[in-house]
Amino acid sequence: MKIRFYIDPETGEPHIYDPGVDEDEVNDVLESPIYDTKTEGTSRTAIGQTRAGRYVLVIYTRDPEPKSLFVITARELRGNELKAFKRIRRRKKL
């Protein structure tokens, strides 16, 4: 699957770098998300665990090109947000 990333106009780098996520971590999440749902408009939100064990949230949309995704942003789940996700995961058996 081909993955393109939103490029931050200020830095010229993928927007995912700002919150400290890299392309491999996004790939880990998108290959096997724990949770994936439609959000606003045509975008989707995926949450998964990276090979390093971090929980990462990825916001993406399907690209017009077949078998291609466009990643808007990604960030690590931390603190209360991570606790809440783990609690929901246990209750719903995600």
Can you characterise this structure?
The chain has helices spanning 23-31, 79-92; strands spanning 2-5, 35-38, 43-49, 55-62, 68-76. The longest helix has 14 residues, at 79-92. A five-stranded mixed sheet has the order 1-5-4-3-2. The model has no long low-confidence stretch (mean pLDDT 93). The chain is α+β, with helices and mostly antiparallel strands and 94 residues long. It has one domain (2-92). Helices cover 24% and strands 34% of the residues.
The side-by-side strand order for the widest beta sheet comes to 1-5-4-3-2
Q: Rg to the nearest angstrom?
A: 13 Å
Strands, total number: 5
Largest sheet: 5 strands, mixed
How far the N terminus sits from the C terminus, by CA atoms, comes to 24 Å
The stretches of 5 or more residues where confidence is low (pLDDT under 50) are none
Give the secondary structure arrangement, pairings included:
Elements (H helix, E strand, L loop, with lengths): L1 E4 L17 H9 L3 E4 L4 E7 L5 E8 L5 E9 L2 H14 L2
Which key phrases capture this entry?
alpha+beta; 24% helix; globular; 94 residues; single chain
Describe the structure in brief.
With 94 residues, the protein is an alpha+beta fold. It has helices spanning 23-31, 79-92; strands at 2-5, 35-38, 43-49, 55-62, 68-76. The longest helix is centred in the last third of the chain and has 14 residues, at 79-92.
